[in-house]
Amino acid sequence: xxxxxxxxxxxxxxxxxxxxxxxxxxxxxxxxxxxxxxxxxxxxxxxxxxxxxxxxxxxxxxxxxxxxxxxxxxxxxxxxxxxxxxxxxxxxxxxxxxxxxxxxxxxxxxxxxxxxxxxxxxxxxxxxxxxxxxxxxxxxxxxxxxxxxxxxxxxxxxxxxxxxxxxxxxxxxxxxxxxxxxxxxxxxxxxxxxxxxxxxxxxxxxxxxxxxxxxxxxxxxxxxxxxxxxxxxxxxxxxxxxxxxxxxxxxxxxxxxxxxxxxxxxxxxxxxxxxxxxxxxxxxxxxxxxxxxxxxxxxxxxxxxxxxxxxxxxxxxxxxxxxxxxxxxxxxxxxxxxxxxxxxxxxxxxxxxxxxxxxxxxxxx
Length: 365
Description:
One of its GO terms (molecular function) is cinnamyl-alcohol dehydrogenase activity. By secondary structure, the chain is an alpha/beta fold.
């Protein structure tokens, strides 16, 4: 791949060891190739994957680590990069200098396998490269969005309408697409259907927003009654159920077409499966350490359980355009990069509604 210009120094924040503490870090990004886009990063979202990656919770972290996107339990739980195009390679036709763009969970793939041809690059098994802590095609270790800029092949960039706030666009690249993609795949964009959302965090609150935009009847399930007011009055859900309340759960038996499970902690699955109608589907997008359920939960009602990981390039662009058209905005708390370590602790304590977004442009001037 020929390059235009030379490598360029980049300023970011990185973890140096398993303490996970972030601090300023200088490194080099590759030169802009003929097919590349140079993105000046304005905002970057934070998710729980950044916390566990910086602390090497699952092993394999390569330090220094500039967070951005990470593969956990076989699914993508990522934060998100948005910014402004500053340079484009000579072969790039889709983007121009000044465009607002986003970069998601991966920055490369083989572009030749069945999944890549189908716009499912997220499932590429030959050469998928994650946005950070992954080996790129040139042998370098990718580094994420806690930094001033990023250089990405244009295929893995997404156009963000200029009417859509960049800070709000950041969580769409993870929380948004992770719930949008399985909803579209299972035809849960048809008005009148019934949706159950397990968990009300970064992913769950976006599932509620999409459900209402699609005209669905939305029920939120949580272990905490404290989430009821925000579920019903802030996010507009139609029903709220405390999942430990057997009476409330029983009242919804065989009433839901589809459930999306965003909970990452271990929890029972049988009680939820029995809430699905015949041939209903539960899609898992969280990352519990194990799944335990009775075969009867599946066999009796011809129900199924599936998994989903972010989305391909086609779905991601479609989702961004849909959010802009319907004015769907994640609920965010914008912070400077200097607050990131404290934000990590608050994420562990579930003290955020519902997504931290780092103002990289003002933080790293």
